[in-house]
Amino acid sequence: MTNTTSTTEPALGGAAGAAAPAPDLTGATGARRARPPRRRRAVWGVMSTREKVVRYVLLVVVLFITIGPFLWQLSTSLKGAGEDIYTANPSFIPSEPTIENYLKVAAAIPVWRYIGNSVLVAAIDVVGNIVFATLAGFALARLQWRFRKLVLGLFLATLVLPGEATIISQFVTVKDLGLADNLVGVALPGMIAALNVLLMFNAFRQIPEEIDQAAVVDGANAMQRLRYISLPAVQGTIAVIAIFSFIGAWDDFLWPLIVLQSPQNLTLTVGLQYLQGTFATDQRMIAAGTMIAFIPIAVVFAVLQRFFFKGVEEGGVKG
């Protein structure tokens, strides 16, 4: 008997029958080919050195344009009478700083009385806008009533008209009320501004309606929802309104000039014009008066600045 031996190839598991890796063209079998270096991807929020330099240069330019005139007025107000401010090459830093110009302003006009009048007008406008703009914005954003959209459209329409277009009708109204030559008559038209109402409307609208609905289910009325739910969420916007109202009332010149006639009732912006008329050639006193008018605005903004930037980004519910 003839035994026939069959030769069988052993079975390969896994990659059985797979072809062997082809030799690399460079002669290294199985070696990895060298990959080109990957380009570094830009990471969101991370600036390159070049971007930082460009941004800081732009910030310095904007800062110089914005703060430059203010610093020049401050420098002029501190220069003495012996220093020439009309020279072709004036010095920015006073050679002999003095506060004599501020004392001259206080001696030339009743500056403290004018400051008190301006503070009274500004306080009335700030309180009026905070109270009435908040109530109006809440009613437009969170309450359901007839003609709500029509009233909102009227507020928007008033923004189109410049203030000078209605100044005659405002004066006739104030005069008929017997408030001419009165500080209350100066403050009355600015006690509620359409822009502030729209700011509060937008802030209240960011609050989810589900919170109001849950409060209604719990039995809360409109004033309770305003006090306990809505007001804590819009404190930043209220600070923005306070700053805008104060600056608008403090810097207003045309309206107090029309309403007021008695010298003792003038606001600071109107009263400072006596420096321009009587001492037209002494720019040092005019600069000192400008700085006196600027200081209260700087103080108010410094106190409320953290609330101001919070109000710009005002959102809905605070966690």
Descriptive keywords:
disordered N terminus, 14 helices, mainly alpha, disordered C terminus, 319 residues
Describe the structure in your own words.
- There is one protein chain.
- The chain is mostly helical.
- It is about 60% helix and about 0% strand.
- The termini are far apart.
Biggest sheet record = none
Outline: globular
pLDDT averaged residue by residue: 82
Give the percentage of residues in beta strands. under 5%
Number of continuous helical runs: 14
Task: Show unreliable segments.
Answer: 1-19, 315-319
Radius of gyration: 35 Å
Which secondary structure elements does this structure contain, and how are they paired or packed?
Elements: H1 49-77, H2 100-108, H3 111-142, H4 148-158, H5 167-176, H6 183-187, H7 194-205, H8 209-217, H9 222-230, H10 235-251, H11 254-259, H12 268-271, H13 273-278, H14 283-312
Structure summary:
With 319 residues, the protein is mainly alpha-helical. The chain has helices at residues 49-77, 100-108, 111-142, 148-158, 167-176, 183-187, 194-205, 209-217, 222-230, 235-251, 254-259, 268-271, 273-278, 283-312. It is 59% helix and 0% strand.
